[in-house]
Design brief:
Blueprint (H helix, E strand, L loop, with lengths): L1 H33 L13 E5 L2 E4 H19 L6 H27 L6 H10 L3 H5 L4 E2 L2 E2 L1 H5 L8 H25 L6 H12 L1 E10 L12 H10 L9 E10 L4 H20 L1 H8 L11 E6 L7 H7 L7 E7 L2 E10 L5 E9 L5 H20 L3 H12 L3 E3 L3 E2 L12 H9 L9 E2 L3 E11 L10 H29 L7 H4 L5 E9 L11 H10 L5 E6 L3 E11 L3 H34 L2 E3 L6
Antiparallel strand pairs: 1-2, 1-18, 3-4, 5-15, 5-17, 6-11, 6-12, 6-14, 7-10, 8-9, 9-10, 13-14, 16-17
Amino acid sequence: MAIRKFRESFKWLIWLVAIAFVAWLGLELGANILNFNWTRVKPWQEGIVAEIGKYQLTVQEYDAAVQKAIAETLAVRGVEALPPEEEEAIRDAVFYQLVDMIRWKQLANKYGIKLSDKTVLTLVALFPPPEIMRDTLFNKDGKFNYQLYLQVLNDKRYAPIFAAYERELRTQIPVEITRALFVKVPSISRYEMWKRYEAENTKYGFSFVNLVYNQIKDTPTGVSEEKLKEFYEKHRDDFKKPPRADLYIVRVDKVPLKADSLQAKELVDNALEEAKTNWEGAVKAYSEDTRTKEKAGELGWFAKDDPNLPPEIRSALSQADTGVVLGPFLFPFGWDIVKVLEVDSTGDSVKLAHILITVKTSYQSKQEIRDSLLRFLEEVEKGKDKKAKFVELAKKYGFRVDSTGLFSLADGFIPFVGPDRALLSWIKRAKVGELSPVVYRPQFYLVALLLDKRKAGVPPYEEVKEEVKRKYVLDYKRRKGLKLLEEIKAKLSAGTPIDSIPALYPDIRLSVGSEDSASSNAFVRGLVAKDLFFSLLRKVKSGSWQGPYDYETGAYLVLKRYEVPVSKEEFDKKFQTLLPQEQQQVAMKFIGGFAKELEDLFPLKDYRGYIY
């Protein structure tokens, strides 16, 4: 009986093992046939610089755009090379130009906006590519000849130029059409333009008294917790916060490493040897100081004990004679070789020239810096308590950890980083406790740990308790300030000169002033919340003191003495000039607002930190 049961169980066991084996074999064979790797290949390992929505920006596409931008910059400036930091800045700018272009291109595709083959051919025929327009072979009598251009439309030698031009047309024009369609806002009201023009150009004669509430020294005493909570509940909307996040950030600058200094030192030694026999030739060949390179490195006259000179150079100059070459001296900005061109008759002053050779961060050093961050990330990922592990491992690697505290995501600015669209995009997608990828910036790399993320809304009382206290005190001062201004208004209405008012209240700093023929565009000392102030002037009656008018941090008393209205005929004459400016402002404002929607529609995943 037992044996029979064992045999039956054994049959099931055989079948289970057989099925498992066949499944494994199938998968193994499939993996071999398809060359499948169980370790998922990362996008950057396949040469993907970024993902924008569903579009994958490749290294080839990005590098081509960067090289084109650098070549154009070199051509415009008439130089052979750019400083490394400027090339880095160009790379960053090109990246975001491409990101924006790709987003608009995807939007164009979404709405089916594209060029037909016939349209592209017509455009190519009507508008020659820039490369051909610049080619003097197509000039006749010093001008571009269209007939010569038509003769090469089917010439295979020019096929690469036409192919590239066609690709650009198919990309750029649908984008511009899409932008034009989305920016086609409702026509601007002539009446609204007139009211704005009138508000900006009407001139006034006026006097004012301005009191900033914080100038009142009195503060409430014995404020209970119950009163603060009551104030919080009554003014909840005043404590509303935008979406916020809190990060730990490790930022590593792309500084030269020891190998870079040694490599530069070899160059410096060569420069020093040549400088001793051919100073001008050495300056032209080696110096990177563009301000002095064209004048043989000349710096001018210096006193030997000039405190503006580094102490190493001052020390070397103490016994230096005309013609001596000193150095090399190593400073944070690089290596310096100095030549004494002349010593004055007293021996106290010298005329100097120099050769500056900077220490640059090599590609290998940048790679080493980036790899250290990658190892840091891998180790942090293995820890259970990532927050503690992040700090602990940062110390091990010699990295500094900065804590941003809760900051607004609506401002587009990240503490210790600045504006960074890629990092902001990651924060919006990430969950608390996640690590960011390596973020590329022109001057540094960084990684971040998301400690906290909060939606827009009113925080609990305990979180904003200190802010509640500040606003409670400000509200107390506000009520006192408004009473004080009522008192001052009575004095002014009774004939007290406005200039004597500050002396009557020595414990409070009051701003008083008078202006003649001033518009809202004028600078007026002592005015804050200027837009509010001039809107008040448009509403109040002339001839008597009005107010107090409350604004966020203070209040005004206003006396409008006269008003010089703007002419409607003047506006009508300028209307055609003003209209394009107004349309452009409205369009730019619309595009700026729509850019945020595009970012949400086609989110950015930036992998530059793993490649460059």
